[in-house]
C-alpha cells in the first residue's frame, strides 16, 4: 500500500506504480481543491478499481459532471444507519450498519449521471453511495476507516478483494 497527498503525486507517477486498486481518500474543501483526484478518476476508472471516500466520493461524481452542494445536514463526527444494496463493497455487510460521517457537502442527487446507480442511503434517505454501472468505480460519503463504522473493515476488504 502506498499513500500520496493529492498535490504531491502526478498521473505519470501513478501510472509508473501500476496500481491494482486506488482509494481516493477524504480531505478538506471541495473537488475543485482536491489536487489530482478528479484527474485520477478520469484517467484510471476504466481499468483500475477506484473507491472514493467522502471527498473522494464527491470527486467521482464531480468528474462525471454532478454538482457538489452544501449538505442539508452538516455531519461532523456523527453516525447514521446506512441502508445498502448488498452488492460489491456492501456484500455480506449488516443492513443497515452504523457509519461515521464527517462532511458538510454532498452530491446533488438530481445531477448524478445515468451511468451511476445509488447504492446506499441513510435512514432518512440521504445519499451515501454511488456505483458506476459499467466500470469498477464506487464512492461512499461516510468513512469506512473510522472505528465507529461497524462494517468499515469488511467494506474495505470487499473493495480490495474485487467482490462482485
UniProtKB/TrEMBL annotation:
GO cellular component, one term: cytosol
One term of GO molecular function: anthranilate synthase activity
Keyword Manganese assigned: no
Gene Ontology terms: biological process: L-tryptophan biosynthetic process
UniProt xrefs under InterPro entries: Anth_synth/Amidotransfase, Class_I_gatase-like, GATASE, TrpG/PapA_dom
Domain Glutamine amidotransferase: residue ranges: 3-161
Pfam families: GATase (PF00117)
Listed name of the protein: Glutamine amidotransferase domain-containing protein
Keywords: Glutamine amidotransferase
Species assigned in the record: marine sediment metagenome
Stored PROSITE patterns: GATASE_TYPE_1
Amino acid at each position: 500500500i502506498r499513500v500520496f497527498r493529492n498535490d504531491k503525486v502526478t498521473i505519470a507517477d501513478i501510472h509508473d506504480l501500476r496500481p491494482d486498486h486506488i482509494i481516493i481518500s477524504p480531505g478538506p474543501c471541495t473537488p475543485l481543491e482536491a489536487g489530482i483526484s478528479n484527474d485520477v478518476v478520469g484517467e484510471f476508472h476504466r481499468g483500475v478499481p477506484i473507491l472514493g471516500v467522502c471527498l473522494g466520493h464527491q470527486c467521482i461524481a464531480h468528474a462525471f459532471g454532478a454538482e457538489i452542494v452544501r449538505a442539508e445536514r452538516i455531519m461532523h463526527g456523527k453516525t447514521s444507519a446506512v441502508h445498502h444494496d448488498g452488492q460489491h463493497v456492501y456484500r455480506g455487510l449488516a443492513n443497515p450498519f452504523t457509519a461515521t460521517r464527517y462532511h458538510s457537502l454532498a452530491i446533488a442527487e438530481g445531477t448524478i449521471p445515468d451511468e451511476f446507480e445509488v447504492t446506499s442511503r441513510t435512514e432518512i434517505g440521504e445519499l451515501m453511495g454511488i456505483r458506476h454501472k459499467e466500470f469498477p468505480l464506487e464512492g461512499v460519503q461516510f468513512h469506512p476507516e473510522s472505528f465507529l463504522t461497524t462494517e468499515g473493515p469488511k467494506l474495505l476488504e470487499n473493495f480490495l478483494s474485487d467482490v462482485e
